[in-house]
Amino acid sequence: MESTRKQIVLGILAHVDSGKTTLSEAMLYRAGVTRRLGRVDHKDAFLDTDALEKARGITIFSKQALLTAGDTDITLLDTPGHVDFSTETERTLQVLDYAVLVVSGTDGVQSHTETLWRLLRRYHVPTFVFVNKMDLPGMERQELLAQLNRRLGEGFVDFGAEQADRDEALALCDENLMDRMLDAGQLQDADLIPAIARRHVFPCWFGAALKLEGVDALLDGLDRYTRPAPALEAFGAKVFKVSQDEQGARLTWLRVTGGELKVKAQLTGEADGEPWAEKANQLRLYSGAKYTLTEAIGPGQVCAVTGLTKARPGEGLGAERDSDLPVLEPVLSYQVLLPEGADVHAALGKLHRLEEEEPQLHVVWNETLGEIHVQLMGEIQLEVLRSLLADRFGLEVEFGPGGILYKETITEPMEGVGHYEPLRHYAEVHLKLEPLPRGSGMQFAADCREEVLDKNWQRLVLTHLEEKVHRGVLIGAPITDMKITLKSGRAHVKHTEGGDFRQSVYRAVRQGLMQAHSVLLEPFYAFHLTIPDKMVGRAMTDLERRFAVFEGPALEDGQAILTGRAPVSALDGYQTEVTAYTGGLGQMICTLDGYGPCHNE
Question: How far is the first Cα of the chain from the last one, in angstroms, to the nearest whole number?
């Protein structure tokens, strides 16, 4: 199994419409994987295999392809570019060695490019940049390079420049490179590899994927300037997605990070608190829609495994730890309207199956109203969900009007005490509730001596705090950005049972929230609005009316650019309005930008 070839997993990321799928297709064609160049507009792209993707001309599901560049075997993961599917992109990032960020030469850096860049930084993914569409009128190389360095941070270097110019630019990015330049007068590949891996340098190539310009240079760069990830001796793997094949078999996609995974190996993990053990029946190496079976896969390889029913995206197997929770989460909620006479529980089961594949889809069953709600990122996702239910299960659904998902938090620290003492039961809990900075989520801790409350009970209290979504006292929205610390508690030698602490914990949280000053939080969009400059007055008035905070306008070539943030609820439908009043010349791009105090509490 030992091969001398280098294995890397490479992701391609981009803002929608910058030519990401076109670049993937060009790379596959130049690497000899495909005989002809597939095109999105001809609906024959090798990677956009799904009927929905062909119809919309966008990538919705992450795919993979296998290719070689020189001595490097590359597993290429193509990710969705549309903001509605950015959680799928985020999960894929956690298994990448390197990424190629595609920037459109005609549009430059967009706000969604900035969101992707933040995610690449968060997951420490070394990145190469391909500036596409250089055959069309737009900015010059120098302008684009300056914009990358200005908007995304330092380190972008044109690798198509003369070596002397390139080396000079590189020396400014990294101290080691500066020392090498002073010593040797020029830089070797071996000097650049660690600087790129440490994200000090981001090599850039300029070209036109549709005309195959610059694609060979990019492939050559990926071969020359990458190194395999350090592998552990012990077996480890990370699950990054779940899907199903044509026959309806569940596929668990994982990347091996250490050791080796053999076919028929027993894998173990934990799902919903229950341990599981299952056999890896088949190991499939996919390229586009086709796959080959393999006996074993080693570090740096990705495969789809059949036979696993319990593993979830983000789960670590063997020596690999579980992923952190994704940063991006759904902000809209819609009621699912079933056709007359449809069995609600059967429909719920089908939605739960899709939820396993699309963790950014949250399915909520409201027992009291007998309603199913889905929480998601946006309207395109709704459309995808509708057609997946129809194609796969023959279930035709409609959706009720969308609602915003609010959250609540507190503004000052507060103690909460919970008491539970019916006949022959007893438990008491003292909790401290403290506000945290926006975007922190929930944190739980114990700061209580064992002589006051036994370690087992303390652990149980933390379990009860973590197991449930606690709701605020304003509108019953989930609480967030808060730390809850167990300060003290009491149990009775004879009468305390586990369930008693659950009751007292819930009561303590509720009592603390009732006393504290609560604020309502709503989701915000960061927006990037480009319009003809003569319409800037109208746009500014609109945005002020929609409670936006913005800077600008920046004027470039007869266009005005406004950037800022506004509540998701206030921007609802504004994109359509912009298209209408600018006669299709205006463009509004929104990306989720966390939660903030509600504008009309």
Answer: 62
